[in-house]
Write a structure and sequence with these properties.
With 179 residues, this protein is α+β, with helices and mostly antiparallel strands. It has one domain: Muramoyl-pentapeptide Carboxypeptidase, domain 2. 34% of the residues lie in helices and 16% in strands. The chain contains five helices and seven strands. The strands form two sheets. Strands 3, 4, 5, 6 and 7 form a five-stranded antiparallel beta sheet that branches. A two-stranded antiparallel ribbon has the order 1-2. Strand 4 and strand 5 form a beta hairpin. The longest helix has 18 residues.
Length: 179
C-alpha cells in the first residue's frame, strides 16, 4: 500500500484492464484510482465528463488527479488577470471541463509528455463511452476519440497548424472538456 498526497491508501497490485484498440497496453500489474480530493472536484462536473475521467484513470499509464472542475466567475477572472487562462468563456464555469495533474512517484509534474499519455487514456475512455472530448493541447480536434493516431501526434499536428497560420499555439495539456 502507498498513500497519495491527500493521505489516501492505494494498492499497487490491481490488474489493469485489457485494451483491444488504440493504446494496446494489455495487462498491467497495477491500476490507478482517484483520491478523495480529486473525486470531490470531479463531483462538480457534468456526469459524462465524470465517467470519462473515472474510466481513464483505470487505464492510464500515468497516475493523475483532478485539480480543477467547476470554477466560479471570480476564480476565472483571477486566472485571466494572471495570464493562466485566455478566456472568460471557459467550460469550467459550467462544469464541462477538468484540469488534470500528472503524478510520477507520488509527485506532481507538469512535464508535457506525461499529458499526452494521459490524453491517450482520455481518448480511449471517450471512445468507450461515446462521449466527445476536446483536449487543450490539440484544440483543432473537436473529438479526440475520432483521432486515429497518438495524442502526441495530435498535439504536434496542432502546433504545426498554428505555426503554419503564423500564430502561437496555446498548449493547455492538463485541460479536457466536453466537446
Amino acid at each position: 500500500m502507498w498513500h497519495d498526497i491527500w493521505g489516501n491508501e492505494n494498492s499497487l497490485y490491481l490488474e489493469w484492464p485489457t485494451i483491444t484498440s488504440g493504446l494496446e497496453r494489455g495487462k498491467r500489474e497495477m491500476a490507478y484510482s482517484l483520491g478523495k480530493s480529486s473525486l470531490a472536484k470531479l463531483s462538480t462536473v457534468d456526469k459524462k465528463l465524470w465517467t470519462v475521467c473515472q474510466d481513464a484513470i483505470k487505464i492510464s499509464r500515468i497516475d493523475f488527479g483532478v485539480i480543477c472542475g467547476i470554477r466560479t466567475l471570480a476564480e476565472q477572472e483571477a486566472l485571466l488577470a494572471k495570464g493562466a487562462t485566455q478566456t472568460m468563456k471557459s467550460k469550467h464555469l459550467d462544469g464541462l471541463a477538468v484540469d488534470l495533474m500528472a503524478y510520477v512517484s507520488g509527485r506532481a509534474s507538469w512535464e508535457l509528455n506525461l499529458y499526452d499519455d494521459i490524453a491517450d487514456a482520455m481518448k480511449e475512455a471517450s471512445r468507450k463511452n461515446e462521449i466527445p472530448i476536446r483536449w487543450g493541447a490539440a484544440w483543432h480536434i473537436d473529438d479526440i476519440s475520432k483521432w486515429t493516431e497518438s495524442m502526441e501526434d495530435a498535439m504536434n499536428s496542432y502546433i504545426d497548424l498554428r505555426r503554419s497560420q503564423g500564430r502561437r499555439p496555446f498548449i493547455d495539456g492538463p485541460h479536457f472538456e466536453l466537446a
